[in-house]
Amino acid sequence: MGRARFRAGEGQSVTSPSSHGSGGLRLRFAAACCVVLGLVVTLNPGSIVAGTDDSRFEGKHYRGRGDVEYLRLLETAGRMFQPDPELQNLSMLYMPSWNGLVEGPTWDAWWIQNSYGTTYAILPFLREPFTTFLQNAQDLWFDQMGDGKRVGATPPLDWVAPDGCLCDAARPGWIVYKQGDGRTKIHDWGMEFTAAGVVLQSELLLISRDAKAIAHYVPLLERSANFIETRRDPTNNLFLAGPAGNLLAPSFAGWHRPDGTYDKAYLAGLSITYIAALDRLIELEKLAGRKEQVSLYTQRRDLARRGLALLTTDEGYFIRSLDPDGVKHGVYGAERHGYFEASPNHDAIAFRVADDAQAERIFRKMASLPGLRPHAFVLPNYPSYDDMYEKPEGLWGYGTWVNGGHWSTCEARMVLGYYRLGQFEDARRSMRQLLTFADRFRMDNPLTKCGSDVYQPNQPINLCYDTFGPAAAFMRGLFEYLYRADGLTLVPHVPPGITELEQCDPVRFGNKRVLVSTVGAGPITAVRVNGRKWKQFDRTTVFLPYAKTPDEAKVQIVFGDGKLAGGRASARASSSSAASENKSSLGRSPSQLATLEKRVARLRVFEGRLAAAGLGGGYEAAHARLAVDCAGVAAERKQLIEAGKIRPLAGPSEAAAETCYADTVTKLCTGLETVLKTYEHVSDPRKQQVYEAWMKAAQ
């Protein structure tokens, strides 16, 4: 699925040259031996304050009253997306060679499917420099998308993809247009990969509302949509995909014809993901004022929705696929192909492709199958597939890889589904299960043994972008954040045990920032924005028209007979943290540390100069702050361990963690320095000013 994998414990290629060899992915684990410095800041994952009738939780990211464990889990989720001395976090996945995010230390590219759930869930919360990092990563797909001429990767993955085709994975000058593992000669193009890529880029643009970026990307997104349209069967409005044309590729074999060959079948996931993509592309076309395109894509989406009836069982859930000869795959309990396929079903809930009634029916079916979530995390299928083109043994055996192994990108969408349906205990169990890996620095993907063990156990620590997905969804699910051309709709899903909630980190809404707090339980009865009564709400939603929403909008939502009593949402400071405002202190290996400390110190001065020049809100200043903050938490971790306030990891894992923290700072420094060098001879006045601040910071 999405990337070539190593057999657990063996470090060997799966089946495809895409994991090793010429043009392939190589095992990359940082081996930097320096340790970076910074002054210790107080580690405070959140405190509990006793109340008269319940308890109050005070964290940096979330505050509230009531269900303290749930609030603490929310706080922990928030901590994973900024530098933290105790938890693996998003900054550790920075890749300087493309100034963007990378899948992981052992996976040096950017995959659509693997990033899908995490990116969609965290997008509202991302700020600079992560918004730039993410766009640069996704540009690896769009800058190299198929055009009918471009040659991808290297032999034997050097396919020439049709126009509009995205990919499985990419890095600079290298792209794989089909799934690169298994019998690649029979694989279809990245059909559902392409649809998912359109979802992610469209959502990113709907959040930013950047007119220049929309003008650039919409033609690319249209090409991808047109590519998917080539697979529509006009007789039934379903979409054909061949082997490995699904997201969790290469588990899907397509239609196994009577003559033994494999051909295309109607793939439910492709219809559902494409509908989600068109929902967002239509809104972008509205923002761009392109009425004809709005009409065209609306018609295409509505027709695709009609086709879903043929992929729906009597119980209301979606099958996996339908062969052209009428054979159905994924009807649970059937004599042939009688497994349950999770992805199209939880995706239909998460992306609102299924209406409320069908979403409830789908979930009831999923909840009735204990084998689908044996360790809290959802599996892609239960029981084993009987229709893969390989026998279900070894890597293809149930519970290991794409056949019953767990993928956190899928869990993110499952958690969003839990929130939509008010299944808060399922979301809680998911987050608890994630922490059993996070606490040990074992954020690996996929998870083997049906979601209970890591894929690469012989690594001292593990880290993959996918694995942040459940935490991201645990936050986004609270209010969904439905971005449209005319505004933003909040759909609150607050656990009833939480009687007060304050989300302290703002979400993006174009150039605006929105902070949300709630009080009470039950239906929405009142809303205030910046202290003033707000009329655009109903019992379940709050609508924020873009033109009427303040640049800094503090939205207070009252449920039932709740009362506002001075509670307020407050934005996290955008300036440097305490770690970046103080001097660094040396630890060990002075010759190496002195060089790195000088780099960090220069970034601190640089950030200060940008702030003084009114440029402190830009990408460059944010990148500098992130590097300085990462240096601070690297030193903080060491001091907290020495003080006995946190427990070191077992065996060689702690040394690997220390290396990871140090290497993160090195990469962030290198990446920003490389970017700033490109500003030296540009004509852009702003970049000239930034470069001047950089040069003066060295004096």
Question: Mind telling me the CATH class of the domain at 108-476?
Answer: Mainly Alpha
Low-confidence stretches: 4-45, 48-53, 567-590
The CATH topology assignment of the domain at 108-476 is: Glycosyltransferase
Number of strands: 28
Percent in strands: 5-15%
**What share of residues is helical?**
25-40%
Judged by helices, strands and strand pairing, the structural class is alpha+beta
Shape: globular
Which radius of gyration do the C-alpha atoms yield?
25 Å
Q: Compute the number of helices.
A: 17
What is the average of the pLDDT values? 90
Describe the structure using short key phrases.
699 residues; alpha+beta; Glycosyltransferase; eight-stranded mixed beta sheet; five-stranded antiparallel beta sheet; 17 helices; 14% strand
What does this structure look like?
The chain starts with 46 loop residues before the first strand and ends with a helix. It contains 17 helices and 28 strands. Residues 4-45, 48-53 and 567-590 have low confidence and may be disordered. Helix 2 packs parallel to helix 13. With 699 residues, the chain is of the alpha+beta class. It has an eight-stranded mixed beta sheet, with helices on one face. Strands 9-10-13-14-15 form a five-stranded antiparallel beta sheet. Among the domains are: 108-476, Glycosyltransferase (Alpha/alpha barrel), CATH 1.50.10.10; 578-696.
